[in-house]
Amino acid sequence: ILIRTTMTALTRIARIRRIRTITESTMLPPVPILIARIRATRTLILILSSTCNDPGCTEDHSHSHDHGESSCSDPDCTDTSHSHSHSHDTSTDRLGISNFVYKSTVPFNSQRLLMLLNRWPVPIKEELDIIQLEKASKEGAAMGDDKVEDSPFAGVLRSKGFCWLSPIVWSDTGGDAWRHDTSMYWSHAGKHFGINTAGKWWGTIPKDKIKDYFVGNMKEYERIMREDWASEEWGDRRQELVFIGAGIDEEAITKALDDCLMTDEEMAQYRADLQNYELKTMTAMASGGPSLFDAGGYDNIDVEK
Q1: Is the pLDDT of residue 109 over 60?
Q2: Which of 64, 123, 185, 230 could pair covalently with 105 via S-S, beta carbons 3.0-4.6 A apart?
């Protein structure tokens, strides 16, 4: 049994190495390959930790059909003295893999968010090591100069979604007032992180006009109104980020991101700045100045790890 289990493990390792060889020439492995690595690692650990009790299984597993006093894996057994069960434990709980969605209807303070992202722990190895990530999430991550820091993001494998960032300078000339109307796409995998423009929020269009864009697909319009429309004041502007990782602490990640949200005082200033900006824009348009939709300034934030 030990020999067969070891051979199966070596076969799995060879497969993982083949996957690594295919992807090591690129900066960022495609998501399907990341998933393949996770599945391969999970399968390897499950094989080393237990035998397979499925008599109909065709995989190269080590099988044991002994009927002990505690359990019996034979589905055709009629001996009532046996305890029968027939299930394969494929739960990701054994590796500590979990996920959650972070949501908020308040914009991030762009400066505080960037400070947080600049401390995001970066994996040293090119290959995916779930066990090492889970360990880092519990014991801290090395941040350079042999310094180890606790970070709620240490065990995060993948994160993505849409976010709302506040403007820093409410101007179209060298400023970033365009952030108010622009949805940002958050994308992170391994050593790579980026926040880029993803188009305008639906909230930039009067609500009664949005239907015109969905004449042939009213179900999608209804879904947006039901799931994405966060408030009457701000429309669909929101934070909606998915986090996947090993041993991640949902409460700690949520708190770290909540600390980057604008406070009540900052939101009051946000509203005042927005009102002044719209008034200046309308005045400029009336005098033949730049259009409201002339975003200008920077078009993305890109934090490359």
Answers
A1: yes
A2: 230
pTM of the model: 0.60
Q: What tens digit of pLDDT does each residue of 125-154 get?
A: 555 454 555 554 454 444 455 454 678 898
In angstroms, rounded to a whole number, what is the distance separating the alpha carbons of residues 23 and 30? 8
Measured torsion, CA atoms of residues 131, 132, 137, 139, in degrees rounded to the nearest 10: 120
Task: Report the DSSP pairing between strands 239-246 and 97-104.
Answer: antiparallel
**Quick one: average pLDDT of 38-48?**
39
Mean pLDDT of the chain: 73
How would you label 284-303 residue by residue, b for 16+ Cβ within 10 Å and e otherwise?
eeeeeeeeeeebebeeebee
Task: Give the whole-angstrom CA distance, residue 203 versus residue 216.
Answer: 20
Please, are residues 195 and 185 in contact by the beta-carbon 8 Å criterion? yes
